[in-house]
Fold PEBP-like protein.
Amino acid sequence: MHHHLVEVAPSNAEPKRAPHLKSLSKRMVSTFGSWCRSCADALRVEIQATEEQRTTVAAKEVEDTQGTLKTLDEELEQMRKKLRILEVQGEINLPDVRWRVANAMPDMSKPVDRHLLEQKWRKDGDLDLLMERIHQMRVVPDLLSAMHPSIDVRITANTLGIVPDKAYQIVEPGSFLLPRQTFEPPKIYANVFHQDTRLYTLVLLDADVPDEANATYTTYLHWMAPNIPLSSNHTTRILNLNNHTKYIPPHPQEGTKYHRYVLLLLQQPPIGATKYSLNIEARANANEPTSVHLDIPIVPDRKRKGFDLRSFMREWGFDMRQGGGAHMWREVWDKHVSAIYRDILRTPEPRYGFQKKPDPYSELKHTKKYVR
């Protein structure tokens, strides 16, 4: 009996495909993409007809107008969800689309590019790391009961020359910064995945300020800037953030543990609706915000300590469960904090710590041990 030895490929090796199968696979992908694009074109026509029907109904003054409009809006929302899926599936396997997003050159006017960029943020670990630090360091529930970020917030801080050839470095959520690195405001960037222009309110809080009167900890508001317009077309640093409640550098107190500094981009409520939708996004006019403009008063310095984030959010209609952005980092006291108290706050610097235990031998230590 003859035994024939056959070379077996490792189980994790990519199976070899015959040339005709590769060609068939490409044709199938191309055919599916073409079918999706054709369906999307037909659905756009249907959406346009339904929108015209809605406009006609809205112009009539009849009793059941609101009920009919609600039904049409629900139908349009479902159609637009299907359209979004078809727009993505029709182009998601095109090589130039994949290349653009992989090389950080997405076309944010295209639904497929926005989809791939958002999925990269949600599935490649960046959002997971942020939420892990947010929960691990108890930002939730200490500051908020829940949080579902919908935009990718990134910040950079001054390297102080520590990193060669880099003036600024990206701050990983939850990492430690030196107080000197935040003497000037951090630079803030955001990847936004909605096409309509929405308004956001920036808030920076210290969650770990000693409250001696109540033997606990309270918050301190370091920075606030309302009505920041953001959309998927915004691809640069967020500017003009120091025109409202001005930035005061973090100043963790001597003798305290590390302080959590939490930066939030709170999504302002939509105009004429309870939540954002694809209908709102589709009907938006270019550069006209779909959010309510909020006339939030400047927070005076005397009210920064003890700033109640939950009450503030209830008052102005913010809800982090429906979207927004978040980031955080930590700092501990060092000698450079004293300059902030002296030059910016212009108040005596507090110092905390445990009282020294009385030494029963203190008097004896100052006497001669041996007397002849």
Summary: The chain has a mean pLDDT of 90. The first strand starts at residue 152 and ends at 158. The beta strands are 152-158, 168-170, 187-191, 198-211, 216-230, 259-267, 324-331. The CA atoms of residues 178 and 331 lie 6 Å apart.
